[in-house]
Structure of ABC transporter ATP-binding protein:
Amino acid sequence: MSPLSPDVVIDLHRVGVQRSGNPLLKDVTWRVTADERWVVLGPNGAGKTTLLNLASGRLHPTTGVVHALGERIGRTDLAELRTRIGVTTAALAERIPAEERVRDVVLTAAWSVVGRWREQYDAMDEARAVALLDQLGVAGLAERTYGTLSEGERKRTQIARALMTDPELLLLDEPAAGLDLGGREDLVARLAELAHDDEAPAMVLVTHHVEEIPPGFTHALLLREGGVVAQGPVAETITGEYLSKTFGLPLVVDRAGDRFAARAA
Ligand SMILES: Nc1ncnc2c1ncn2[C@@H]1O[C@H](COP(=O)(O)OP(=O)(O)OP(=O)(O)O)[C@@H](O)[C@H]1O
């Protein structure tokens, strides 16, 4: 399969990223196809967000080659690529004005802006924004302001926003961070639903916790200090051996059905 095959949504070939003389990523080769749902796991500072920034074209590699949706990063129109990739990150979430109506938080993604001003949206866009809020279980909050939402409700609103442009690729950076147990379980269930949806885009979800891997996620990439420890199908990659190497301590992984749990050995 060539990197430009339409099935390949992310293709990293021997990628390195350096900043201030430090390697953030080292020799990463990784390929994601349209029907795959990936989880990226690793400790703080392992390079997970850097990897997502490469995949979304927000960052250029120091060495190696990155293709996203068939476009070579560094040689493509980023504005066009951005509408084809849905992203939720803490950095983006911080830019959402507290006084913004929830419906508009989703709607404004159609223009790649945060904060509604004078853009004109058609009835179809309005209807799509509400349908997405409904899919994420927060349609009842559409007229509330973003600042009044709980953290879990905000996270679901951000995912609805990321889906607004009907992206070919969805990148989720720690979507369950800061959620209580109920909020996490609700989010995991909604992401599992999305993962099983044939119409849904390819997905990459960054997390620190195996408990947050939604059923239906097919593959995992484990990162430590900018390097790949293991990658492949979830069942073969989320093991005690690989997780211990990734997090640098002896760990045991338990699997119950299609959910995982990890604890110190
Ligand atoms: N512009 C920069 N200059 C120097 N170092 C950087 C820069 N950006 C990131 N880093 C460092 O690169 C490393 C990887 O960062 P990254 O955010 O990708 O990690 P992460 O796995 O997402 O971490 P976390 O789980 O804590 O969010 C970190 O040690 C970080 O301090």
Q: What stands out?
A: The longest helix spans residues 181-196. The first strand starts at residue 8 and ends at 19.
